[in-house]
Amino acid sequence: MEKAKWYFINSGPCTPSFNMAMDEALLDWHSEGHIPPVIRFYEWNPATLSIGYFQSVEKEIDMEAVKSLGLGFVRRPTGGRGVLHEHELTYSVIVTESYPSMPATVTEAYRVISEGLLLGFQNLGLDAYFSVPNTDEQKENLKKPKSAVCFDTPSWYELVVEGKKVAGSAQTRQKGVILQHGAILLDLDEDKLIQTFKFSSEEVRERVKRSLSQKAVAINKIISKPISIEECKTAFKKGFADALEIELVEYKLTKQQLDYIKELESTRYANDEWNFKK
Predict the structure, then answer these.
(1) How far is residue 141 from each of residues 137, 157, 169, 213, measured CA to CA in Å?
(2) pLDDT, tens digit, 9 for 90 and up, residues 38-54
């Protein structure tokens, strides 16, 4: 049987506002039937702190530290916690909620899409698996995260290697379309990440920092030979294609599409009203 064809876009390093505008634009075009489902890989220039749609900048983020570290800053259209995008490959998946074999529930759809991540890590030779919270305390922590830091908080079907989280993802559903995007860590600067958040005391800051090193790990910390971003792209592109049983077709944006993204970027993701609204 012929496999379904999805677009594949390799954007390379882009500004934080462009990255988020492009994900939203792809969602719009897919919802309108102009393009098939899409898998996109991208990076960040400059390194960026992104926060979840529902997070409060005033309560949780130290913007002076963000600026002094030379980081970009953007609010995502998805939920979840704060992520430092620096030494990583970021992915996004855009597909209709009604896509064949796509589960109706957010959690199960997350599992199906994340099978591509699972195979990607395995393609790199890592013994990755899904971790499912199974105690009452773990399940309660899902509802009330203890920290504003993504890799310090648990989630359903998170990808784990050697007992530690290796990818953080978030999802939104708009206009009948699922947008899931996330960070695949090659390396992690824990000091830099922790500096960008506000804590009630230095003791709490240190506790979260210690906790982070116990809960999260980057690929190059657990693999004998460092993995390049290109090797990562190859492994995860094949992972998504195999897991979703699809054929990925390279796609380049038209000038008209780029103009649409730039318009979205200027009105939303490069706009303080959006980024600092909470």
Answers:
(1) 6, 14, 17, 18
(2) 999 999 999 999 999 99
